[in-house]
Amino acid sequence: MAISNKVDVVIAEGEPARGWERLAGVLNEVAATLYVAPDPDRRFIVLAPSKRAGTEHAAAVGIDPVAIVTPRSMHGARGLVVDEIIEAPGLSTEERAELMAETSPALVTSSAD
């Protein structure tokens, strides 16, 4: 699962203002290139097949993780509290399940013990 942060444009109900036709072309171009960076106050764990792959994935999505958890360092997130768990590509289904079981208690919204 790749995670990215993007914004959808929400348009209010009602009659459009005069001149909306001229503005529509500009807005469509802006909406296509709009990117919102992750909130710097959010804490992330990256699940990855290796530390290097986790570091590269974190850099690619523009985050600074509090931990990179791999099959060789499954307990790397113990004692942490995070807002989101992000998965780097390359993990098998079994590895992902093991790492999620180990890291899910760190989620702020988790009810896991």
* Class from secondary-structure proportions: alpha/beta
N-to-C order of helices and strands: HEHEEH
Q: Please state the overall shape, judged from the principal axes of the Cα atoms.
A: elongated
The residue-averaged pLDDT reads 77
Q: Number of helical segments?
A: 3
> What's the total number of strands?
3
Determine Rg (CA atoms, Å): 19 Å
Which percent band covers the strand fraction? 5-15%
Q: Quick one: biggest sheet? A: 3 strands, parallel
What's the helical proportion of residues? 25-40%
The N- and C-terminal alpha carbons lie at a distance of 24 Å
Q: pLDDT under 50 segments (min length 5)? A: 30-34
Lateral arrangement of strands in the main beta sheet: 2-1-3
Helices and strands in order:
Elements: H1 20-33, E1 44-47, H2 51-61, E2 67-69, E3 84-87, H3 93-103
Parallel strand pairs: 1-2, 1-3
Would you kindly provide a written description of the structure presented here, covering whatever features stand out?
This protein is of the alpha/beta class and 113 residues long. It has a domain at 44-106. The protein has three helices and three strands, in the order αβαββα. β1, α2 and β2 (67-69) form a beta-alpha-beta unit.
Label this structure with key terms.
113 residues, alpha/beta, 3 helices
Sum this structure up briefly:
The protein is built from three helices and three strands; from the N terminus they run αβαββα.
